[in-house]
Amino acid sequence: MNNKDASSNKDTNTIDTPKKSFGDIMSTQITFSDIKNGYNKATSTIASYWSKVQFINTFMLKLIAIIVMTIDHTGHMLGIDYINGRNYLSDTFTYDQYIMLRTIGRIAFPIFCYLIVEGFFYTRNVWKYSGRLLVFALISQIPFNLMQTREIYTPGCNTNVFFTLFFGLLAVTVLDACIKAAKKAKENPDYVTFSNGRYYAVGIIFAVAMMLVAETLKTDYDSLGVIIILLFYIFRGKPVRLFISLYLAIYYLSTNLEMYALYAFIPILLHNKKKGPGLKYFFYIYYPLHITVLFLIWKFVL
Q1: Helix (H) or strand (E) holding 86
Q2: How confident is the model at residue 186 (pLDDT cuts 50, 70, 90)?
Q3: What is the pTM of this model?
Q4: How many CA atoms lie within 13 A of 155 on its CB side?
Q5: Using CB atoms within 10 A of its CB, is residue 250 exposed (0-12), middle (13-18) or buried (19+)?
Q6: What's the pLDDT tens digit per position in 160-177?
Q7: What three-state secondary structure class fits 194?
């Protein structure tokens, strides 16, 4: 009797779950929210594993950037003769050697753009940060002129990369402030006079203005440089979207040689966000200093 009751209870408590056929599974509706949640979960899992292999700190990343920049400028300074307003290949390097040096150097600029954005988020005072960039932009202009035209000043000469980084940082600073103000306006509509849409508009207009200033002053990498900095800001923490946006920006707005700049993504992805050794001003001073040294080699050695 007890065994029968137990068997009866077992049968009563057991719930048969029908198995889904392949057709039932395929016919299940998948919403955009499901795809988004799945993507976020997958990227979060990948990020947690990837963080374990990131070994490049900020000091090392800066070191990589200035090494490849020096290789690039070596090719530009020693591999080119500037005669009557035109560039000619010198006898120092063959054409293939010159292209190889310049190709390696493409990696430097995206790293600097990335570091500018990371610096924006970590700096204690963004205005002092931007001020340093402007000061070294002014200091570096004569060495940059020497590299470009072999003259201290040439009318219409381009301006150096510090100006590009400066305008890009200004664009990020104002855009970030406008985005925060827009969110605050949305949360507290009675607290502010502007609608949140107007704040976004101000940020975008200012960013475009910085691009136009970069174009007008002929900064190194001009408006594309400002755009790349903004992309690092907009897609921070979203590597897939960042890579696609960088690819499209460089592909449509620059030369084929600049496509090699995308290889900078490798050391950037391996960045562990740790500071490493200091030497902050070393990396600022190095830019005008190494150009001056290369110019002296070109002038008195070769």
Answers
A1: strand 86-89
A2: confident
A3: 0.85
A4: 0
A5: buried
A6: 999 999 999 999 999 999
A7: coil
- Closest-CA residue to 236 (of 225, 226, 245): 245
Contacts of 46 (CB under 8 A, 6+ apart): none
Q: What's the CA dihedral at 33, 38, 43, 44 to 10 degrees?
A: 90
Closest residue by Cα to residue 163 from 201, 213, 209: 213
The pair of three-digit structure tokens given for residue 286, joined into one six-digit string: 């190095």
What is the chain's length? 302
The pair of three-digit structure tokens given for residue 302, joined into one six-digit string: 């070769």
Asked whether 136 and 143 are in contact (CB, 8 A), the reply is: no
What is the residue type of 203? G
Phi, psi of 278, deg, nearest 5: -70, -105
* Residue environment code for 56-83, b if the CB has 16+ CB neighbours within 10 A, otherwise e: bbbbbbbbbbbebbbbbbbbbbbbbebe
Could you report the per-residue pLDDT of 35-94, keeping only the tens digit for each?
Answer: 877 877 777 777 677 778 899 999 999 999 999 999 999 999 999 988 887 889 999 999
On whether the CB atoms of residues 106 and 72 are closer than 8 A, the answer is yes
How far is Cα 139 from Cα 162, in angstroms, rounded to an integer? Answer: 10
Measuring CA to CA, how many Å separate 78 from each of 75, 159, 265?
A: 6, 20, 28
